[in-house]
Design a protein that fits this description.
The protein contains three helices and nine strands, in the order H-H-E-E-E-E-E-E-E-E-H-E. By secondary structure, the protein is an alpha+beta fold. The strands form two sheets. Strands 3, 4, 5, 6, 7, 8 and 9 form a seven-stranded antiparallel β-sheet that branches.
């Protein structure tokens, strides 16, 4: 019985080693980064946007996506600008949300110096909600500027993940 099990083991192990090696070529993309004036001032360079196109037999279908690093997570959106009401997709959580158009910041000092650009609402001890006074402000540009302030220990853009329900609740 023992020689048969050894033969079966030998047969199975030779079958596994006779596989052909397949080589997988990897595509390396080198993103080009251009610094804007706002980025030079704050010293933060934005993550480059990702664009792709897919060709179909019936024609060309272009899928455009822009990628952003927000609140420590990667988000994608179809919009070139982040403004209030834009839908964003969190890749890690696989959830879609909508930008609320405001920021939550933590600061141990007085933040009255922000009153020129934001309306300030205290929501907890040393925690504030900043809403831009400009209605169609580029939220990503403001987010990067806020991250450049050393006085602010936390800067997060507010995203609403609640789903709109069309069904009646019983």
């Amino acid at each position: 019985m023992r020689p048969i099990s050894l033969l079966v083991l030998l047969f199975l192990s030779t079958g596994c080693t006779s596989d052909k090696d397949t080589q997988v070529s990897s595509l390396q993309v080198k993103p080009s980064k251009e610094e804007t004036t706002a980025e030079r001032v704050t010293g933060v360079v934005a993550e480059p946007s990702v664009k792709s196109s897919i060709k179909l037999e019936a024609g060309t279908f272009e899928q455009r996506g822009h990628s952003y690093q927000l609140n420590g997570e990667k988000y994608t959106t179809e919009s070139a600008r982040l403004v209030k009401g834009v839908a964003v997709f969190n890749s890690k959580m696989s959830e879609q949300g909508v930008l609320k158009g405001s920021f939550v910041v933590q600061c141990q000092q007085d933040i009255d110096f922000m009153k020129q650009s934001f309306s300030i609402e205290s929501i907890a001890l040393e925690t504030y909600r900043l809403t831009p006074l400009e209605t169609h402000a580029d939220l990503y540009d403001l987010y990067q500027r806020l991250q450049g302030y050393e006085q602010l220990s936390l800067v997060e853009i507010e995203i609403d993940y609640s789903r709109h329900r069309n069904a009646e609740l019983y």
